[in-house]
Write a structure and sequence with these properties.
The chain is of the alpha+beta class. It contains 3 helices and 6 strands; from the N terminus they run ααββββββα. The radius of gyration is 15 Å and the shape is globular. One of its GO terms (molecular function) is abscisic acid binding.
Length: 141
């Protein structure tokens, strides 16, 4: 439960723990529930400048969250959207963080292996930093 609460504060924590990737994350419509729209402003460590996403699903009882990027240069001109499904799975006195990313291509062009590898590394680094942040600030969660 605590791990999911920390990751639910991604918008505030990610720019603090990985500012080279996330300059800011701002809500542009909604209150955080399903349908809320947000804009990511990416940092210099990313080959993109921005991306807009909407919250597709939140299931706090199953520790899952889904969102889809629908606009911005993060779609590289070749994608209709990028959907992220996130789930925190309790196990052996701890938890595992699972993420599935679906790249919905406009045509036959696909993101390069280099882009996919870079994005995976960015998210892994960010999630480890968020986990460390939560452990260092347990009173907040």
């Amino acid at each position: 439960d605590k791990v999911f609460k920390v990751f639910s504060d991604f918008d505030n924590i990610a720019p603090k723990v990985n500012p080279d990737v996330f300059k800011s994350i701002e809500t542009i419509e909604g209150n955080g529930d399903v349908g809320t729209k947000k804009i990511f402003t990416f940092g210099d460590a990313v080959p993109f400048t921005n991306g807009k996403y909407k919250v597709d699903a939140i299931d706090t009882s199953n520790f899952s969250y889904s969102y889809s990027f629908f606009d911005g240069d993060c779609l590289m001109g070749i994608l209709d959207s990028i959907t992220h499904h996130i789930k925190v799975v309790p196990c052996d006195g701890g938890s595992k963080f699972k993420q599935t990313v679906i790249y919905n291509c406009k045509g036959s062009d696909k993101p390069s292996e280099e882009i996919l590898k870079t994005e995976k590394e960015i998210y892994e680094k960010t999630y480890k930093a968020i986990e460390a942040y939560g452990a260092a600030h347990p009173e907040s969660y």
